[in-house]
Design brief:
With 198 residues, the chain is mainly α. The protein contains eleven helices and three strands, in the order ααααααβαααββαα.
């Protein structure tokens, strides 16, 4: 998976991902779903171009859940859905995936679970040293990426603003999803435990 700044235009998109997952469950192909999205505009966007771009993002993320995790998404509770939406994001973008493993888990294990916005900036600077592609992202893109990451961590319940700083928490999920993660998915397990290799 290559680094990509395309997730600077990502969003939570829960309803859009649910639409795609339901369509996949009905046995529709990618092209059929795309055509339905263009015809029906369930994403409520103004132009065919923006609908197409949104479809690309949400289809990519939905495919990280389909078919193995779809039932957990629809039959689980709200916490399961939030965890799986974050999971779909981390699975889709290398920078987000590495940020979770290298920054969030580290802050939880070694810094009393405290995360500051400046930690996101310092992490970005470290990655710039490792990747010319990241070094070439413009300042606005870097800011958007950090904001999107914080949005996903907040929406999923992994971080919470407490007394002016973010506190990092393991995700609360159903016992069924937790068992699946422990047996089949190291990333999902890491999201639930904030531990690696345990």
């Amino acid at each position: 998976m290559e680094y990509s700044a395309s997730f600077a235009s990502e969003g939570w998109f829960q309803q859009d991902i649910e639409y795609v997952l339901k369509s996949l469950n009905k046995g529709l192909s990618r092209d059929e779903i795309r055509q339905n999205v263009l015809n029906e505009n369930p994403f409520l966007l103004r132009s065919e171009l923006t609908i197409g771009k949104r479809f690309q993002m949400v289809y990519r993320r939905a495919m990280t859940l389909y078919p193995m995790l779809t039932d957990y998404y629809f039959q689980g509770h709200n916490h399961d859905q939030k965890a799986l939406l974050l999971y779909s994001f981390l699975k889709s973008y290398r920078y987000a995936y590495e940020n979770f493993y290298e920054l969030i888990i580290y802050r939880y294990q070694y810094n009393h679970g405290i995360l500051h916005s400046s930690n996101m900036n310092f992490y970005m600077e470290e990655k710039e040293q490792q990747s010319e592609k990241i070094a070439n992202w413009n300042v606005t893109t870097k800011r958007k990426i950090n904001n999107i990451l914080l949005l996903f961590y907040r929406e999923s319940g992994m971080i919470e603003l407490v007394d002016g700083e973010y506190k990092v928490f393991p995700l609360h999920v159903s016992q069924a999803l937790k068992q699946f993660a422990e047996e089949h998915d190291p990333l999902l397990k890491a999201m639930i435990t904030l531990e690696v290799g345990v």
